[in-house]
Amino acid sequence: MTYPPPERRKPPAPESNAIGLLGDLLARRRKQSILVVDDNAVNAALLRQLLEGRGYPTVAVQSAAAAEAEIERGAPDLILLDVVMPGKSGYDLCRELKTDAKTRLIPIVMITGLSAQEDRVKGIEAGADDFLTKPICPEELFARVASLLKLKEFTDELETADAVLCTLGRSVEARDPYTEGHCERLARDAAELGHYLGVDDESVRALERGGYLHDLGKIVVPDEILKKGSDLTPAEWEIMKKHPVTGETICRPLKSLRLVLPIIRHHHEHSDGSGYPDGLRAREIPLLPRILQVVDIYDALRTARPYKPALSHEQSALTMRAEAQSGLWDAELVAEFFAMLAKRRQVA
Ligand SMILES: [Fe+2]
């Protein structure tokens, strides 16, 4: 079968909205900024002068607390961080920034003393990207700064592409008014379930991304099929069933989505092998898509659609446990999910 059907294939616009948006975002690249954190006012001012002399917008602050306030105002593209400061040390600030999803991709250069092998080991453990030793050699400073800012530029481009794909995922959802907010809930709850089960941080982030991207492939499913929801003809069903592979193909070029690809491809597999696209069984289905699937099914049951009413929490739990027993879902994960929801209700 030709896919999509020839009669529904439209000639491509000269420049589609998505490509235009990505181009705009990349073209509007702002000047990269630097934050210097050093409790010694003379050192901080000297670094700021050197960097501004090279055309880098630079802010200098003298404590970790002031640095945090500055980052909150607007994330810099690079941080030069002194190790020893009163109050929170450079290591502690570095560790905190590197574990926060909002700031973990900002390169951090730690400024250490001359004979500071131990400082460097601690800095590496805290997640520092590079080191400069005092007294600062201006040429070394400029070389390190230029190389890390280049790296940050590439990271930003990847992040932008990633964000554009998530926006596209939301736009697919927006075509069906009955699924409003589904992506956000799925991203939040799948990440929470992953965290509850103790998967690593990278997998938790993949689950969050999977919430937005799992149905991205529906972008090529025509409206009349997408909005029908049920009673699809066999031919329409064949088109619908291609969305996991199409979504995976769209996202595959982005290396940062490596862990999200199996979520996109396998979120419609069933434990008994009756799902698609690969008919995988039980533990053949990777863990992350099984986690997302449990959350996805619950959200679908709890939401009203043109062809079915919304079920209560209790009805949804009964339905999912019965379907898990009959071989559709991972019974163990279903049990863990409801245990997590029960715990969440106790806390609330
Ligand atoms: Fe799907």
What this model shows, in words?
- Helix content is 55%, strand content 6%.
- It is an alpha/beta fold.
- Helix 2 links the parallel strand 1 (34-37) and strand 2.
- The longest helix is centred in the middle third of the chain and has 37 residues, at 138-174.
- Bound molecules: fe (ii) ion (FE2).
List the helices and strands and how they pair.
Elements: H1 17-27, E1 34-37, H2 41-53, E2 58-61, H3 64-73, E3 78-82, H4 90-99, E4 108-112, H5 117-126, E5 130-133, H6 138-174, H7 182-197, H8 201-213, H9 223-226, H10 234-240, H11 243-251, H12 261-266, H13 287-302, H14 313-325, H15 331-347
Parallel strand pairs: 1-2, 1-3, 3-4, 4-5
Helix pairs in contact: 1-6, 4-5, 7-8, 7-13, 8-13, 13-14, 14-15
The protein binds fe (ii) ion (FE2).
